[in-house]
Amino acid sequence: MPLAVTLGARPLGERLPPRLATWLLTVSAVVLAAAGSLALALLSATAVAQVPAVAWLAHLSVDMVADADPTARPVAGMAGVLLTVAVGAGLRTLWRCVRTMLLSAREAACLPGGGELVVVDDPSPDAFALPGLPGRVPGRIVVSTGMLDALSAEQQQALLEHERSHLRCHHYLFAAAVQFAATLNPLLRPAATAVAFTIERWADEDAARACGDRRLTAEAVGTAALATTTGSRVHGPATALRRAALGVVGPWRRRTDPLRTAGPLPKRVAALLAPPPDGPAMPLLVLVPVAVAVLIVAGACSVESANDLHALLAAAHHSR
Questions:
Q1: Phi/psi at 128 (nearest 5 deg)?
Q2: 173-202: average pLDDT
């Protein structure tokens, strides 16, 4: 079932309205990652139950479990190994996300001034949202003087609305959730890549709506990207803040080789120059209930399998 997300993440991310695509891909990735992890746990559970020490502690009949177990021991052992690796990687990713969120909140609280916007004296063009803690530490928008110099006053407003959308819609939570899912199941990595694109498109659309000018927002996106490609590479205060910020939120632009960013960026600009996405085309609209059906089937299979395992262990407990 994760193969459906693997194959469909990119087209769905590029053609569905960005808000819908972000929710659909994130929820799909999380549910399928959880179902996959549960499947590995169920496959390995009966093998663990046949270990004499475990069976003695749990008051289980080893012979009963062995006779009724439909899983071959090599399969159960491999499932246990995969589950251990997945859980270990997932815990590392979770710890990294929690740690960077707390670090981001601390940096947001320590920035000077009490307003949302913080301007850093840094010739390197840069702009990003620094998430805080909901209800406790407000998020901040950090913009370097180099970025402000590169944009007109109208483009600066589009940039600020873009970053406000990241904070208001908590895009970093979507990115963190789908990255955690992709860590548990590598087949879901295309979903993480697609969500990184759709949250930028979501912020682009919010900025265009707030400014009332889609072309102006497209020009701001292109100008900011051009500024960071040809601008100063001095590692100033804004760069230090970015390293301390939460890395799961995509920047206004990417500080990487232009050839690597030539894909998503032109697509964002082209989407802004096109009419606003009122809704998906009918073929894509049909895929939404299909995706929901896949998630329901995955969840139902997981629940049914867990129920079967519970019945098996209960019978083994009574047979001892």
A1: -160, 160
A2: 93
77-112 in b/e form (b: 16+ CB < 10 A) is eebbebbeebeeebeebeebbeebbeebbebbeeee
- Give the side-chain half-sphere CA count within 13 A for 239: 13
pLDDT of 34 above 80 = yes
Q: What is the rounded CA–CA span in Å between residue 148 and residue 266?
A: 22
What gap in Å lies between CA 25 and CA 198, rounded to an integer? 10
Q: Which strands, in side-by-side order, build the sheet including 127-130? A: 117-120, 140-144, 127-130
Question: How far is the C-alpha of 136 from the C-alpha of 141, rounded, in Å?
Answer: 16
Nearest alpha-carbon partner for 12 in 306, 240, 290, 245: 290
Distance CA 254, CA 128 (A): 11
Tell whether the model's pLDDT for residue 271 goes beyond 90.
no
Q: Is the dihedral of CA 98, 100, 102, 105 positive or negative?
A: negative
- CA atoms lying within 13 Å on the CB side of residue 176: 19
Both tokens assigned to 29: 């990735």
| CB 13 within 8 Å of CB 21 | yes
Spatial neighbors of 170 by CB under 8 A, at least 6 apart, are 131, 134
Can you give the pTM of this predicted structure?
Answer: 0.79
User: How far is 240 from 259, CA to CA, in rounded Å?
Assistant: 25
Rounded to whole angstroms, the maximal C-alpha distance in the chain is: 78
CA angle (46 as vertex; 44, 307 as ends), nearest 5? 100
